Amino acid sequence: MGSGMRTVVVREYGGPQVLEAARAPVPEPGPGEVLVKIAYAGVNPADWRIRSGRVRRFGTPPFPIGLDLAGTVEAAGPEVTRFRPGDRVYGVTIPPRGSYAQYAAVPETQLAAAPRHAGLREAAALPVTGLTAWQALERAGTVGEGSRVLVHAAAGGVGHLAVQLAKARGAYVIGTAREANHAFVRGLGADEVLDYTATDFAAELAADDRRVDAVIDPISSDYGLRSLQVLRAGGVLVDVRGTGPDRTALRARAGALGLGLVELSFTPSGEDLATLATMVDRDLLRVSLARTYPLELAAEAHASSESGRTRGKIVLSIDTDPAPDLEADIDADPVP
Q1: What's the pTM value of the predicted model, to 2 decimals?
Q2: What is the average pLDDT score of the chain?
């Protein structure tokens, strides 16, 4: 495979400028792993939290970065049973094995066959946000036919998928989004959309006949405490920010009210990814793409993601070096 592979590493903790193009040896797949030739890598808020040093679970820089990937199996290591060379796959790799690279050795348990009715670019945008949205609804345990669900940042990466997944379960879905994104969110299936810049969602939904069974919250901050006000008895708030926010007050308040609180960090799961791929193929789920950048412009992709003004997902193109696709740059909602 030549003189190694192109990759992007975090040189040191800091802003987007610390992302640095580099070359590295092509990894060898170990037992239970496959070598994936990556076509596209998704860009997630988790990526720039790792890059900035807000999340420090992956060692000391320099190290590779990136979670989402989609591509083709190049080789299979010992004990692999589910995939063979040539298979189109998508999934998650965990630093210090990054997806901002031409190749990654990935446990087969963290991969699934890519959706048949979507390209690899769309597939690469789905794993982290799709798993987060899916597992949030699973953990809520209250989302089904006739239930009421509030999804914050409904035009964002996790939110726009959670809206669709909740609708597929038969729920009545309320989303929060800027007015400019109301048509987009309604097009995903939302029954109501509240403009968070003009309406206090807590006041709007506090009446007994307006309360909800579950809240999916990718924002945290004061949204959590305010969201508790709109839950019915036995309702559940799912905070999907993972590590970082201090939830001491939120835990105490949820306990005092007898409400459920789930602090969710997504779990890489080939089984869940296979379910999401099936939903894509059945036209029950579609991922919205914001921009596509070449690998070498990963810093620009991070700056765009970190601005909080992207609707859907940003992806990096690994195999080719196209100019940035700027046509989808719109005024979206802040996505933490």
Answers
A1: 0.91
A2: 91
